[in-house]
Amino acid sequence: MIVRIGNFFFHHRNGIFPLLYILIFLNGPAAFPDYRLALLAGVLITLSGQFLRGVTVGLDYIIRGGRKRQVYADRLVHGGLFAHCRNPLYVGNCLILIGVGTAANSLLFLALGVPFFLFAYWAIIAAEEAYLQGKFGGEFTTYCVSVNRIIPNFSGLSKTLEGMHFNWRRLITAEYNSAYIWMAAILLATLKNLWFAGVYSIRSPVVQTLWLMLFLVSVAYAVARYLKKRGMLA
Which distant-in-sequence residues (6+ apart) come within 8 Å of 228 by Cβ? Predict the structure, then answer.
């Protein structure tokens, strides 16, 4: 049953998951008394998740979107951070989601959105592992015995990194879209918090800085997308 649910989420996640971000922008109860401290803590949590994803993608890549929106793998990836955690990308995703909800100071997102995402990723992991077990058999079984599913074990990380090449172009190509989404979400949610706190003013240096940052990350997104479409990041 959980595998079927995981396959459903895997197939429809690009349509379902973004809808949960609406919770961030609703004028619901605050998660923390001071939205500024929540913003600082949230950004730090989000950056830790993005760092984990970035290192994972830059060292050894896995086909995250599957094939035709179905779980797929042409090889069992166990290099880079996959030698220390079977699902470092999903761990990074969860940290980013918790961080965004915290930065937005949204109790609705933290209480409803985050548990939904945790369940969805748990189901997706079950579906992926069922597929990998069926395709790779004993190789995947051996891999599961030596590597944790969720909690990273960084023992021997320095040995893993020896001789590995970090692919910056692949990192930009794979991450520019998701990184833009969480950065834009945090900036817009912060502007929302200023508005509902009654301190929003277009003349405010803080408000102007936030809009400028949103403009800059949007330009960076457009440039990265252009370079990818032109094949200049291949």
Answer: 172, 173, 176
Buried b (16+ CB within 10 A) or exposed e, 22-58: ebbbeeeebbeeebeebbeebbebbeebbebbbbbbb
| Helix residue spans in the chain (DSSP H) | 2-16, 35-59, 88-103, 107-108, 114-136, 138-146, 157-161, 168-196, 205-229
DSSP string covering 176-202: HHHHHHHHHHHHHHHHHHHHHTT---T
Rounded to 5 degrees, φ, ψ at 153 are -115, 105
- Give per-residue pLDDT as tens, 83-142: 999 999 999 999 999 999 999 999 999 999 999 999 999 999 999 999 999 999 999 999
pLDDT tier at 144, thresholds 50, 70, 90: very high
Q: In whole angstroms, what separates CA 146 from the centre of its chain?
A: 25
Task: Give the CA radius of gyration of the chain.
Answer: 19
**Domain range annotation of the chain:** 2-165
What is the domain class of 2-165 according to CATH? mainly alpha
State the sign of the Cα–Cα–Cα–Cα dihedral 27, 28, 33, 39. Answer: negative
CA 25 to centroid of chain Cα atoms: 19
Q: Which two tokens stand for residue 184?
A: 């834009």
With beta carbons less than 8 A apart as the criterion, state whether 39 and 103 touch: yes
